[in-house]
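Chain entry —
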Amino acid sequence: MELFLVSFGALFSIMNPLGTVPVFVSLTTDSAKKERAVIAFWTAIDVFIILILSFFAGKYILSFFGISLNALKIAGGLIIASSGFALLTGKFREHKGMKRQRVQDDIHARDSISLTPLAIPMLAGPGTISLLIAYNQEYQATIQVFTLIMAMLLVTLLIYVVLKSAHHIVRVLGASGINGLSRIIGFIVIAIGVQYIISSVMAIVEELLRVH
């Protein structure tokens, strides 16, 4: 249960569906309610597929590139922390590359926006992927793998609910309310990133002390 809560909290905070709400609303303004629900559904499906692939392909990625788990966790921690700073300073969209005019024009020209930019990079970005690769190396028992999959499934379900209700959320909370919540989540995300870096540095130091 502890692993489920920790992994769910980390994934939800890093992916931050609430931060995607303004983007989803702006991209689906002209869409009917049913069309928005379909886009939200396929975005959630795309995210879940990306999470599963990231988790199970993690060991092969590390092996292929010769990357140690501690190196991955430090790099992932830096990415996660930078995402947190972007949330905390209100620059989440710029951090995800959503402010460039060329990108905006390309997005609005697409028939489907569920995979890009919503699933990637808005939700399942590098920070999420590196976290799951690290989880793959740390938790390999069958019950642990099952627990992590359940956490991914719940996060995906919440993403669908949040995006489906995005226009209603904006009406209720407004831009200031969403920004306020995103900044709180940003602080948590920074702490997760820093904790990952600290645990990796401590593991490296302990390994060096054992060698000597």
Summary: Confidence is low (pLDDT under 50) at residues 101-111. Residues 2-211 form one domain. The first helix runs from residue 2 to 15. The chain has ten helices and no strands.
